[in-house]
Design a protein that fits this description.
By secondary structure, the protein is an alpha+beta fold. Helices cover 56% and strands 7% of the residues. The longest helix is centred in the middle third of the chain and has 32 residues. Bound molecules: zinc ion.
C-alpha cells in the first residue's frame, strides 16, 4: 500500500509507523514533509472491511450474500482486535468473488482518503500555519492533546478543509484507477457506491474507535458526524466545480453503516446522540467561522505554494 500511495507525490514522503494504534500523522521536519500511517490503521481497516463484506446482512445488493456468513467468534475478536487471533480470523476474505473484490477496492479507497486528507494538511499549508502560530510541527488524527481554545478552533476548520481535500482528491484518483482497472469486475460493481461506502465507513469508524476506546473527542477534530456531513455536502457542492462528476451513490448508506456498527459491535448503543445529529448542520456552519484572522494568514502561505483553498460560498478566482 505504501508504494501505491507514495507515487502520488514526489515531494511528500509517505511511510508506515511501527505503532498498533489506529492513527496517522502529517509532519514537517525542516523543509521536509512526511505522511506517517500507523500500521494499526491498515490492520483495522482490513479487519473491518473484510468482516463487513463477509456479513450477509451488510449491503446485500452487492454480489451473492448466500455464500457469506459471520461467526460470533469473528465479531468477538473484532471487538478485541489486540487478541493475536484477530489477525487470523478477521482477515478472512468474503467468499463471493464480487464481494471480495468490493472489499479489496474499499480498503484501497479508505487508504486513498486518509492519504489525501494528510496530503491536504501539507498542500494547504496547515502545518506551516500551526508551526509558525502555535509552535507545533505535527498533525495527528486521533490522539487528544490539550490545546488552547484558539488553536483548537483553528485546527477544527483545518480538519474540515483536509476532509474536503481528502474526499475530492480520493474520488478523482479512484475514478481514474477504476477506468484503467480490469474490466471483469466492473459490470457487477458501481464505482461511486464503492467510494461512498468506503469513505462513510471510514468516517463512522473514527467515531467507533472513540466509543470503543472510551476516548473523549479530540479538541482538534470536529465530531465525526459533522465531518461526515461536511464530506457529503462538499462532494455534492464542489465535485462539479472542481471538474468532477457528482457522486451518484445508488444506495443511501450512512444510516445502514452506523446501524451495522451499533448492532454488531456496540450491543445496540447508538453511534451518535440525537443532540449530535440535530445540531450537526448548525455546528458545521459555526466551525467555519472559527478560523477568524488565521484565514488571511493561511491564504498567504497557500498563495506562495500555489494551492489555494476556497471556503464555502467563496468565488473561485
Ligand atoms: Zn487531519
Amino acid at each position: 500500500m505504501r508504494r501505491e500511495l507514495q507515487r502520488f507525490s514526489s515531494s511528500i514522503l509517505c511511510d508506515y509507523i511501527n505503532n498498533s494504534q489506529f492513527n496517522a500523522v502529517a509532519k514537517l521536519q525542516g523543509d521536509k514533509e512526511y505522511i506517517g500511517i500507523f500500521y494499526g490503521f491498515t490492520f483495522f481497516v482490513y479487519y473491518i472491511f473484510l468482516t463487513m463484506m463477509s456479513d450477509p446482512k451488510f449491503l446485500p445488493e452487492i454480489g451473492d450474500v448466500s455464500l457469506e456468513s459471520l461467526s460470533d467468534r469473528r465479531i468477538r475478536l473484532l471487538k478485541n482486535s489486540t487478541d493475536p487471533e484477530a489477525a487470523l480470523v478477521c482477515t478472512a476474505w468474503p467468499k463471493c468473488p464480487v464481494r471480495r473484490s468490493a472489499a479489496d477496492h474499499m480498503i484501497y479507497i479508505a487508504h486513498l482518503f486518509l492519504y489525501f486528507h494528510e496530503a491536504a494538511h501539507l498542500e494547504f499549508c496547515h502545518l506551516y500555519l500551526v508551526r509558525d502560530e502555535f509552535q507545533s510541527d505535527v498533525y495527528e488524527e486521533i490522539e487528544a492533546f490539550p490545546l488552547s481554545d484558539e488553536e483548537a478552533d483553528v485546527r477544527q476548520v483545518l480538519e474540515l478543509q483536509a476532509d474536503q481535500g481528502g474526499a475530492l482528491t480520493s474520488l478523482r484518483e479512484w475514478r481514474a484507477a477504476w477506468q484503467h482497472g480490469p474490466v471483469a469486475v466492473k459490470h457487477s460493481l458501481d464505482e461511486d457506491l464503492l467510494w461512498s461506502a468506503s469513505v462513510e465507513i471510514l468516517l463512522i469508524l473514527f467515531q467507533y474507535i472513540r466509543i470503543a476506546n472510551n476516548k473523549k473527542l479530540s479538541p482538534s477534530h470536529p465530531n465525526p458526524f459533522i465531518r461526515w456531513l461536511n464530506v457529503k455536502m462538499s462532494t455534492s457542492i464542489y465535485a462539479e466545480e472542481t471538474g468532477l462528476k457528482n457522486v451518484n451513490s445508488p444506495i443511501p448508506l450512512g444510516k445502514r453503516i452506523s446501524e451495522w456498527f451499533s448492532k454488531t459491535l456496540l450491543d445496540g448503543a447508538p453511534m451518535y446522540s440525537d443532540v449530535e445529529r440535530k445540531n450537526a448542520k448548525l455546528e458545521l456552519y459555526h466551525i467555519w467561522e472559527r478560523i477568524g484572522p488565521y484565514r488571511d494568514k493561511l491564504r498567504q502561505y497557500q498563495l506562495r505554494r500555489g494551492h489555494v483553498y476556497y471556503y464555502p460560498g467563496e468565488i473561485r478566482t
